[in-house]
Design brief:
By secondary structure, the protein is α+β, with helices and mostly antiparallel strands. The chain is built from 22 helices and 24 strands.
Amino acid sequence: MQYGHRLLSRLSPVVIVGGGHAGVEAASAAARMGMPTILITQDRTKIGTMSCNPSMGGVGKGTLVREIDSLDGVMGRCADKSGLHWRVLNRSRGPAVQGPRAQIHREWYKIAVKEHLSRHSTLQLVDGSAENLIVGGDDRINGLLLSDGSRIKASAVVLATGTFLGGQIHLGKKVHSAGRIGENSSHGLSRYLRDVGFRISRLKTGTPPRLSRKSMDFSKFVPQPGDEEPSGFSYIPPAQPLNNLITCYQAHTNMKAHQIVHKYANENAHIDTTATGPRYCPSIESKVIKFPERQKHTIWLEPETHDGDVIYPNGISMTMPLQGQIEFLREIDGLEEVEVLQAGYGVEYDFVDPVQLRPSLETKRLGGLFLAGQINGTTGYEEAAAQGLVAGANAALHALGKPEFILERSEGLSGVLIDDLVTKGVTEPYRMFTARSEFRMLHRSDNADERLTKKGHRAGLVGEARIHRFDLMREQKQELKEMLSNCKKPSSIWNGLDIRTLKFSENGQLRSALKVLENSNVSFDNIRSIIPQVADFPTVVKDKVKVEMTYAPYLDAAHRDVQQVARDESLIIPDGIEYTKITGLSLELKERLQNVQPRTLGQAHRIEGMTPAASVLLLKFVRKPHNWPKIIDDSQGAAESVAAV
């Protein structure tokens, strides 16, 4: 990784704006594909900063991290190097809703990210603030103008501006311009995007105060230890084993604390703003005001380091004045004498309506301009990173003149995330849940590599070291399944394992060990007495086989559903269709179709208000060549695709 301004005077095919999680993944993805890449950031020491909670993963989010890792991304490996506390959420439930999660050491994570980026010889860091885009007469990106007047040529730009785009900090009644506490926001770029016609709205989020560990009484909290056998994010294990270095704790608010919220309600600018906040991670003010019947709300006390003083109280982001925050906290058991190291605050910022994007995350208005992260209306490190990887990859492919890298909805939660954004847009900060996926039995955290690594390798995203490890795992998995399938024993042998709910009829029929594993109570430890060789296989391989066999009927049904959906997704709609000319559709639906410009018939089906009858009208319309725009990009294959229906 190079430093300085040496490349400013010559063409750089890919420029990334922003050094947060989206920007880091975008820069790494473009560089992995061999492209000269520039990462522009206001402060390079803040690259990889975890602005809010010191944790990653969880239900849905943990799967996103695994998907990023399966595509050779940054987040999973850096999290494994800097983790303090490991826990798989919903471990007692099915694999579709399990989520690996880790508490992360903030400083270690930044160090790991910087070290990871330094391996890319084609990546250069530039200190600066983006002011304007340089656009050619064909509405395609030519470069970027910085606030100091510097110009950077580019054939593709990724904006990953986080909360810095028009950002404002709220603390009590005080409001000032910033994207993060102590860091300037970007207003010139926001004005430019509005001026060229992008639809831009406002969202808001918040962060809790940081507390002094030394001022807390931990005897009044419930300990939350990590898993005895920690499970990391990356499919490439770190050099050092994972260890739990901290314990988290559970506490609760109470009615006395809630009264403090009401006391300071009129001194809170964040409450009064019209911007929409996150529904699934609301401030304590929102919780208390919207749910007055609730006697208490949970607080998760999370140490930010293993040996420091800072505690992050997850679950109580707040924007009331500092004095109010202190009064609120000191009403809580165990926090009677707590010291606040940094006040909680709110952030309001601009975002671009993501319906204006293609599934590649390229804007429809300006060719070569890609958006990723909170600028698209999402919330969360993991959601931002997943978008950054896709945007960075497609920016590189755009510069190379190669086909787009599209993650389909059926391929993973990252695909669901992007499809939801570009098809439905957002009215509140978007957060990933497994429930958003209609294929969640397939979109598990344990099989992200099997879903995406080969695809990433074909696109040039995944390196040889990872693909070699992946191929070895697949060979071991196939060898194990063949061994289990060939080991056939009478029912009396399997019944002799003395496992609850395992009772086969002893009719002389032979059953394979692979078939026996379909029983949820049978583990590899159970059958090792019959097939000792299973001990030679890696745990990750055995876990994959066990999940596949236990849920085989459900997985088969899910694969059939994917095949059905794939038929609609293969029907590509030409760009530039005039949906206003389709007779029989409501004006509202015509407007939605015109805004979204769906890429496929499947995407059109998912637009709000699209009925089966409307789908038939759309299909009839696009089947007629005289309804197509005069110029169709042959690379879409649209003419052949639609005409074949």
